[in-house]
Write a structure and sequence with these properties.
alpha/beta, Rossmann fold, 6-stranded mixed sheet
Length: 242
């Protein structure tokens, strides 16, 4: 359960916004430690089983704070992703909390077969956005693997700020990291990572909507879509453009 009423950030908002400004010059570990100390179990890391989460899980473990970890299980993740899920739990001694939408059978009955092909935005809404709302509804803050160089919609992502779209605090400790920095950290600490990265997948989502490719170009290939709706365009102050 959350430790504060995240629907009303007013009492501490000025203080936290001032801290957000100072965190912009801090390290990733500084951001993780701040969130852990300030929110404790009222904060959770959103784990999508990509290379950024390898780093963030290690930083959370090193911090010693009781930050939780959750994942959105769409039911159509790659086998390699499910294997990475188990590996992360074993390596870091954690339990990753799963959040799921309606069953695939119910989705097909209500919206037709292969919704990911006929209306990928609606599919993401059911399998990702709705479960995310459920997960965040229990929290005061969440930690993400968003980096500014991942896509133009993420170019202004702050390291810490108020998430207007989801009504809680949001931290992106790796916001100013490059792809190389992520891989260097993984190598330096011998961290596990999703093996799909070794087969040309830079960004990893669901089986039906992810192809090998650089950046996010392999996501929803052929569609006018680069985001699933979890991270609407970031503003410099931490809010989200809905």
């Amino acid at each position: 359960m959350s430790t504060t009423d995240h629907t009303d950030p007013t009492p501490n908002r000025a203080e936290l916004e001032a801290q957000a400004a100072s965190l912009e010059s801090g390290s990733a570990s500084d951001v993780v430690a701040f969130v852990g100390e300030r929110f404790g179990a009222g904060a959770s890391l959103a784990c999508s089983f990509q290379k950024e989460e390898s780093v963030l899980l290690h930083l959370v473990a090193q911090s010693g704070y009781p930050v939780r970890v959750f994942a959105l299980d769409t039911g159509v993740l790659f086998d390699e992703t499910y294997a990475t899920w188990k590996l992360f739990e074993e390596r870091f001694g954690i339990k990753i909390e799963p959040y799921r939408g309606i069953s695939l059978e119910q989705q097909a009955a209500e919206h037709g077969e292969a919704l990911w092909s006929t209306d990928p935005t609606a599919c993401c809404g059911i399998r990702k956005v709705a479960p995310l709302k459920a997960a965040l509804g229990e929290l005061d803050a969440w930690i993400t693997g968003v980096r500014r160089d991942q896509s133009p919609t993420r170019a202004n992502a702050p390291k810490f700020g108020w998430d207007e779209a989801n009504n809680l605090w949001k931290a992106s400790p790796l916001a100013d990291w490059s792809d190389k920095q992520v891989w260097d950290y993984i190598a330096a600490h011998d961290l596990p990572y999703n093996p799909l990265h070794d087969t040309g997948y830079s960004s990893i989502g669901c089986t039906h909507c992810t192809n090998p490719g650089e950046g996010r170009e392999g996501r929803w290939a052929g569609a006018d879509k680069t985001e699933c709706g979890l991270h609407p365009g970031e503003t410099a102050t931490g809010g989200a453009i809905t």
